[in-house]
Amino acid sequence: MLNKLPHLCPSCASPLHVKSLSCDHCHTEVAGAFELPPLARLETDDRVFITEFVKSSGSLKLMAEKMKLSYPTVRNMLDDIIARLTELEQPTKNKK
Amino acid sequence: MKTWLFNPFKFIAGSKALLLGIGAMLVTALLCMTLSTHLDGVIDLHLGRVTPSYIYFIEPIIDWLCLAIPLYIFGRILSSSSVRFIDVAGTSALARYPIFFAVLASMLTPHHRGDPNTFIQQIQSDPQLIMRLAITGLLLVPVMVWTVALMYNAYSVSANMKGPKSAWTFVVSILIAEVVSKLIIINLV
User: Fold this and answer.
1) How many domains does chain B have?
2) Which domain does A66 fall in, by range?
3) How far apart are alpha carbons B157 and B8 in whole angstroms?
4) CATH number, domain with residue A44
5) Which chain B residue is nearest to residue A83, measuring alpha carbons?
6) Which chain A residues are within 8 Å of B157, Cβ to Cβ?
7) Per the CB < 8 Å rule, is A73 touching B13?
8) Distance from the B6 Cα atom to the nearest Cα atom in chain A, whole angstroms
9) Alpha-carbon Rg of chain A, whole angstroms?
10) Alpha-carbon B61 to chain mean position
């Protein structure tokens, strides 16, 4: 089972950062403070939706057929993800 | 099951919903013609008045469009999504299908064919009619609540409207639609 990537602190709900990365092949470890990209900070369902959307060549009609949902329902799901992404990008922009 | 009953628009919208909705409107209009029942307002149902046959078929179309148009306009202005008229029109049409059951329930009430005095006399001579009227009323209220819930969900899904914004624009649309449809139908008959 693949572990769910946590993006918020379970204690105070602040955004989490990547502290270290390691290579499975040579066991090299890189330490630092890396920010998770907005896409990685989305919920698993949202990330699955985006992956499927890209695989459907960005066609909402095709997505609706695949998910057996109506076109406006799928469009609303996408718009909600866009809103969440915009929200996630906001603090990053402010920092810059 | 609950979703299919109150929010089928999660699965059906656009032209498919439009075809199903128009089909339901046609069947309901046929029943209305048989029972002399008029849908002379967005959420209105009146019994007994005999009119030319075409009126029974025009009334639901007027009711449907009078609601779909303001909902579409509000959606276009206030929604962050790109709202399509086919979705608003299709889901609004399908949302009217419970009215068939309301017309069916109205069968319990005697149809006085345009003369309210005859109806009053009928009630006075047969006290059981009051009971039948009460049962009809009890059946009509949940059907109308169901219809309005479907209309709201149709709007919410097709225009991606949520929260207080969707509630007040829906109420305003219903009020506009009720007044406009009444005026059109009164001038038509």
Assistant:
1) 1
2) 37-95
3) 10
4) 1.10.10
5) B80
6) 70, 72-73, 76
7) yes
8) 15
9) 17
10) 10
pLDDT values of chain B reduced to their tens digit, one per residue, 189 residues: 788 889 999 999 999 999 999 999 999 999 999 988 999 999 999 887 788 999 999 999 999 999 999 999 999 999 999 999 999 999 999 999 999 999 999 888 876 655 667 777 777 788 788 888 888 889 999 999 999 999 999 999 999 999 999 999 999 999 999 999 999 999 987
SS3 B19: helix
Note whether residue A8 is domain-resident: no
Domain assignment of residue A80, yes or no: yes
Contact residues, chain A, for B11 at CB < 8 Å: 68-70, 73
Question: Looking at chain B, which runs of residues are DSSP E strands?
Answer: 37-38, 46-47
In total, how many domains does chain A have? 1
Q: Supply the ipTM of this predicted assembly.
A: 0.86
Cross-chain CB nearest to A76 (options B12, B14, B81): B81
Parent domain of B124: 2-188
Calpha distance B99→B80 (Å, rounded): 31
